[in-house]
Every structure is written in C-alpha cells, then in structure tokens.
Amino acid sequence: MTWQRRLEEADKRYIWHPFTQMTDYQGMEPVIIEQGEGSYLIDIHGRRYLDGVSSLWVSVHGHRRGEIDQAIIEQLGKISHSTLLGLSNPPAIELAKQLVEITPAGLERVFYSDNGSTGCEIALKMAFQYWQHRGARNKTRFISFKNAYHGDTLGAVSVGGIDLFHEAFRPLLFPVLQAEAPYCYRCSLGLTWPACGMACLGSLERIMKEHHEEVAALIIEPLVQGAAGMITQPPGFLPGVRELCTQYGVLMIADEVAVGFGRTGRMFACDHEGVRPDVMVLAKGITGGYLPLAATLTTEEVYGAFLGEYHEFKTFFHGHTYTGNPLACAAALANLEVFARNKTLEHLAPKIDLLALRLERFKGLPAVGEVRQCGFMTGVELVADKETKDLFPLQEKMGIRVILEARKRGLIIRPLGDVIVIMPPLSISEGELEEVVEIIYQSIKTVIAS
User: Fold this and answer.
1) Per-residue pLDDT tens for 121-156?
2) Which strands form 33-37's sheet, in the order they lie side by side?
3) CB neighbours of 260 closer than 8 A, spacing ≥ 6?
4) Torsion of CA 287, 293, 299, 305, to 10 degrees
C-alpha cells in the first residue's frame, strides 16, 4: 500500500470534517493538501489546484509568502508562546499599535483571541458588561440580522440568523431581537431596490424605537453577509445602521472577520462609507492565512468602563490560553508589512474590475439567478427557474456538483448551498483569476447540461 493510500484511509477512518456530511465524504476520493505555492494548493499526488476560496477566506498574499515565512521563523528563534494574562510580548504590542492605526478612528484598545467566533463572543460580553458598569442594568439584549453568521460558539450562534446552521441549537441559545437584512434578490418584504427606500432599515428603526432601553448592542457584518451566500447590502444601509445606533444609544459591533483585510477592496468594509463602529472584530485574513488569531477592538469609552479598584470586580473576566500568541502576531505584522510595501489594495483594484467584467457572461446562463460581487467577494446563486427564482431540490446537490466538476478542472472552491463562492487570494495574478472564472463558468454549464 502506498503512503498516499494509507493517508486516504486514515483520513476517512479518524477525521470528522467540519460542515461536511460524512456519509457523502466516505464515498469520495479525498483531496489531501500537502503543499502550497502562491495561488496553488498541491495534494499528496502532486496535483495542483487553484485556491479559489483562499483556504476558507484566509489566504491574503498567497501560500508560502517569503516575508511571512521568515517572520515566523525569526519569532520561533525567540519564543513560541507566553501568556498575555498579566504579561506581554513585543509582537502583540506592536500589532495592537498598528491595528489601532489602520482601523476606523476611535478604536483605541485591542483584546486578542484566536478565531472569529471567540472574537464575536468577546464583543458581545464587552457590550453587555459595559452597560452593567455604566449602571444601565436593563440593557441586556442584542439586535442581529436575518441571514447573519458570526461563528459557531453559542453566543455567536445566538446572534446568528441562518436556520440551517443554528436552528438545531435553539434550546441552548439566548433570545435576540432580529431585524430584516437586505437580500435584494429575495426581498422578504416583497420590494425592489432602490424604489423600496431601504424599508428593511425602517424595520430596524421600529425595533430600536421600541426596545432601545433594553438593548446593549447591535452586531452586523458590514457590506456582505458572507456565510448566507455573499449577500451584499445596498449603499447607505451601513451608515443608516450606524445613525440609528447613535440615535438610540446602542453600541454598534462590526463583525469584519470575513470582510476585513482587503476582501471588499478596502482594508476594512467600514472604510467604504466612513462608518465608525464602537467595537470591531477581526480574524481570518489578519495573519495572511498562516495562524489562528483574532482581535476585538473597542473605544476608550468602552475600555474605561472596566477600570476600577480590584475589589470592585470591574475586570473583564475573559481570556484564551493563546491570547496574543507571539508567533501569530509576528505573522500578522508581516502580513501588514506586505500590504504596505506591495501596495496590495492599489494592485487589487484592476483585478476587481476584471472579475466584474468576466462575471457578466454568467448572467446569461439559464441556471444563474444572480451574481453578487463586493470587491473580491463573489457569490453566484444557482436557481432552477430564473423567472420564479425557484431553488433546485436539495437532493440535486447542485452546488456540490459544480464544485466537484471544478475540482476535476484544477480548482478548489466551496459552495454555500447552491451559491458558488469565488474568493481567491488578493495576490492572484490576472491570468490565474481569468482561469478561475473560466473553470467555474464551464463547470456550471457542464453540470446543468447533465
């Protein structure tokens, strides 16, 4: 038996893969990635695949980026980890300073954790405890949006809005106030943008008006609801949310886990419309796709509410073993250095335009209902009928069939139901980007024809 075969058998024997129906997986040939190189993933058989989803939305400058490799190696020569509980380390300090400098004005304090879910948990707990310290003990509730996704820990699931992921855990969750979110292709209010005047924002205002005295914070994915199927928000929605939060005295939490670090064409999604949240959560691309790290940033006002004498117990009693891990922070610093030195966002702009141009012809495919794009975040929604927008039967597994066809053609992508996601590394070349789009186009055509 070859070593490759042994690995494939052991994979099926021992690993429980996330968001994967293992009955299906057991019948498939596993793809076991051994190496990475730029925009490519290389499996144990030496087969090369373009990484069309940035290894789940995290790879920014491609795989095996020399500067980030070297930063981690240099930090390994010093120390791999020491606790941030009552101690500190140079990479964590320098990274916090740089994050404050590049995020929206007013965010002055950085609390580290290790992934987007925990970063959102921290934001929720901070917001709750902030109001407790301020004496507003009735402000204990949260507002979130339909189709929202903020992670898989129970607090993050509580403010989620995707029944497929969250409904099974409902008995374990705390109740939230859920507002309408823009999904213009399938508007739950039966309206059409822009004639609708963003009526969904009106539904949020009604909730705020009635419940603001008991609401601690609102949490939102700025510009794009990623896990819901790359659902984009119309211009003006995000500033409108900010205005309502300010008007009704509700903290605004911006979950930039998926949309941060260049994915929308700006460093952060909030930058597009000059929105300043009270709390911002960062993860995924923060280390360039190298190591787990998250950061929850907040204002001096929020931070100050936790200051006091030891016996007052105003301390924020939350922490993670690997909080502020020096290796991860070193990788994040190198990631930011590459952004600055290579002018990544400037070079990204023409690639965003190219992607938009190449996506145009998808709209002519009979099974494509809508193409949604925000920067380098794209969702191609497949439908059984373009006129009625009817979905394919679940048993058809259309999204899965398309991504498996793409895999045969040398591309790794992953669907969200029947929405095909395109989110390659920001560093991808224009030629590679053209290849990604062409493979997906041909894969959709092939699957529909069959």
Assistant:
1) 999 999 999 999 999 999 999 999 999 999 999 999
2) 33-37, 40-43, 48-51, 411-412
3) 267, 268, 269, 282, 283, 284, 285, 286
4) -160
List the end-to-end C-alpha distance of the chain, in Å, as a whole number: 36
Buried b (16+ CB within 10 A) or exposed e, 193-213: beebebbbbebbbebbeeebe
Residue 374 has pLDDT above 90, yes or no: yes
Residue 321 DSSP code: T
> What does 389-406 look like in DSSP terms, one character per residue?
-PPPPGGG-HHHHHHHHH
CB 237 within 8 A of CB 202: no
CA angle 254, 294, 123 (to 5 degrees): 40
Tell me the three state secondary structure of residue 306.
Answer: coil
Instruction: Say if CB 253 and CB 218 are below 8 A apart.
Output: yes
* CA triple 69-319-335, angle to 5 deg: 20
CATH class of 31-61+343-449: alpha beta
118: tokens are 């925990």
pLDDT tens across 167-218, in order? 899 999 999 999 999 999 999 888 889 889 899 999 999 999 999 999 999 9
User: Whole-angstrom Cα distance, residue 217 to residue 279?
Assistant: 10
Q: What CA–CA distance (Å, rounded) separates 116 from 11?
A: 26
Can you tell me which residue has the tokens 């498996």?
404
At 63, list the tokens.
């795989």
Closest CA to 292 of 54, 119, 41: 119
Q: What is the pTM of this model?
A: 0.97
Task: State the amino acid at position 130 in one-letter form.
Answer: Y
On the CB side of 307, CA atoms within 13 Å amount to 5
Cα dihedral sign for 21, 22, 27, 30? positive
CB 325 within 8 A of CB 319: no
CA distance 335 to 331: 6
Place of tokens 């190591």: 291
CATH class (in words) of the domain with range 69-341: alpha beta
Query: Is the four-CA dihedral 381, 387, 391, 393 of positive or negative sign?
Result: negative
**In the chain, what are the domain boundaries?**
31-61+343-449, 69-341
CA distances from 266 to 178, 274, 284, 339 (A): 28, 11, 16, 11
- Token pair, residue 251, equals 């903290």
